[in-house]
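Re: that backbone. Tokens:
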């Protein structure tokens, strides 16, 4: 699993801390019901908008074939999205993040020694 963020080099330590705290909270508390419903609506909306474009439909057909083993209707995918519960999401988050040590890939100018020192507590060496 990869998480992506873009920020000013000086903000990297606080951005990494916020991501770490958010992942820990997700594993501990799950997603609030209102937020889960909002995300579901957003994902379904993107799916439905993609169904309007021929190129997107072809990409979705290929993706369905590769990952689901065949064609799935937009309605069945929306029903599967609606069926996701907060309890399931928390269980999956715990499984995904349980044993993974975080890694960091930074693109851009080399961080200052002060920024590198601030990152060390976030990414302990084994």
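Recovered sequence:
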């Amino acid at each position: 699993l990869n998480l992506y963020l873009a920020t000013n080099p000086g903000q990297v330590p606080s951005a990494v801390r916020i991501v770490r705290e958010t992942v820990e909270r997700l594993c501990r508390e799950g997603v609030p019901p209102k937020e889960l419903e909002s995300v579901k609506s957003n994902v379904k909306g993107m799916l439905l908008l993609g169904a309007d474009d021929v190129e997107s439909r072809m990409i979705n057909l290929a993706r369905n074939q590769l990952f689901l083993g065949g064609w799935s209707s937009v309605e069945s995918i929306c029903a599967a999205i609606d069926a996701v519960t907060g309890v399931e999401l928390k269980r999956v988050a715990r499984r995904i993040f349980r044993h993974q040590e975080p890694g960091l890939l930074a693109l851009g100018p080399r961080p200052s020694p002060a920024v590198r020192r601030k990152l060390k507590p976030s990414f302990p060496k084994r």
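The two ends are 20 Å apart (CA to CA). The longest helix spans residues 12-29.
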